[in-house]
Design goal:
It contains nine helices and 23 strands. With about 350 residues, it is α+β, with helices and mostly antiparallel strands. It folds into two domains: about 5-235, P-loop containing nucleotide triphosphate hydrolases (Rossmann fold), CATH 3.40.50; about 250-355, OB fold (Dihydrolipoamide Acetyltransferase, E2P) (Beta Barrel). One of its GO terms (molecular function) is ATP binding.
């Protein structure tokens, strides 16, 4: 296991990058703690796989260094980094049995035969393939082959880090949940440093101790699922995390008041005079539909019942605002206002969160 340090790290696929816009991975400076589980979360093309491949040694960065436990491994080959990596699509040896596929990383390092046997049995049980151990990998389904890849990545106990690049893409939905649970269990048992790349927020939030949200080649926030939900540091985090995501509205902010298209609302905290492109962000969970004269005037467009709650889609001067209402609650036909819980309001300037006065 290892602490992973990204020191002034950046990468461009162009031979002579001229500016920041030419970098697929913009400058990063982060320490990832030994033994924690991280998820790299973001939309396609944001730099997740580029960063993972730099960590594994499959790609050399254009600038900066990568360190394992303060040892510079920037130019070290993958074999010297002592990592295990599982890719998006299954990589197996078709002519080998499932047992031999799982045992290969251990035998390749001269592990004791009895240990190999016991460890392979343990991993096979974990991935639900005990009955298939003596079958050849050729002819197995794509999701079965991916389970072999996962198992082969997890079979070694001495790795510095386990890296997963969207490993559950070809796995059926029910098995995805089971394998995520098993990966979490493995992490708790052995304490490996794990880095898991995904564009699926459910996978990220249920797997990781810390979620690293990436946008346009940079890390915009790293934090616990609760921190990402309650205090999105960038409007992309608010939009990307949650279903539906955070409501983001143009605003003018001065002190503890905001004006949204002529309507003034109380913020509950002071922000001073905020300049730049100013926006107010509030999650649907902190938004209430009501009637009367208080709040933002809206028109309800539709109500969606998703089982555990209702989602109200309302229009505010051409901008959609989403409201989450409790299951079983009735939506009054007279409802024409939206009010925000001040505890759930965040203010942004040029897409970045502005801390209120006195916040620690």
């Amino acid at each position: 296991m290892a602490k992973i340090t990204l020191d002034n790290l950046a990468h461009s696929y162009l031979p002579n990058p001229k500016g920041e816009q030419d970098y697929a991975l913009k400058e990063l400076n982060h320490d990832w703690v030994d033994g924690e589980a991280y998820a790299l979360l973001g939309s396609s093309g944001c730099g997740k796989s580029t960063l993972l491949n730099i960590i594994s040694g499959l790609l050399h960065p254009s600038q900066g260094r990568i360190l394992f436990d303060d040892k510079d491994v920037t130019h070290a080959p993958t074999t010297e980094r002592n990592i295990a990596q599982v890719f998006q699509f299954p990589v197996v040896y078709d002519t080998m049995t499932v047992r031999d596929n799982l045992a290969f990383p251990l035998r390749n390092r001269g592990a004791d035969a009895a240990y190999v046997r016991d460890r392979v049995q343990q991993i096979a049980q974990m991935i639900g393939m005990e009955e298939m151990l003596n079958r050849k990998a050729r002819g197995l389904t794509a999701d079965a082959k991916q389970k072999i890849s996962l198992g082969r990545g997890m079979v070694r106990e001495d790795v510095n880090a386990l890296l997963f690049d969207e490993p559950l893409t070809v796995i059926d939905p029910h098995m995805k949940w089971e394998l995520r649970t098993q990966l979490k269990s493995l992490h708790h048992e052995f304490g490996h440093t794990m880095i898991y790349v995904t564009h699926d927020q459910t996978e990220a939030l249920t797997f990781a101790d810390k979620v690293v949200v990436m946008y346009d080649g940079r890390v915009v926030q790293m934090g616990t699922p609760q921190e990402l939900f309650e205090r999105p540091e960038h409007t992309f985090v608010g939009y990307f995390i949650g279903s539906p995501g955070m409501n983001v509205l143009d605003a003018t902010v001065s002190g503890d008041k905001a004006v949204l298209n002529g309507t003034e609302i109380a913020l509950g905290q002071g922000f001073g005079a905020v300049s730049g492109k100013v926006e107010l962000g509030v999650r649907p969970e902190f938004t209430t539909l009501t009637s009367g004269d208080t709040g933002l005037p809206v028109t309800v467009k539709r109500v969606e019942d998703v089982g555990r709650h209702k989602i109200v889609r309302a229009d505010f001067n051409g901008t959609e605002i989403n409201v989450i209402a409790e299951e079983g609650s009735s939506i009054s036909p007279d409802a024409n206002r939206i009010v925000f819980d001040p505890a759930g309001i965040n203010i942004y300037a040029d897409s970045w969160r502005v801390a209120p006065a006195g916040e620690k």
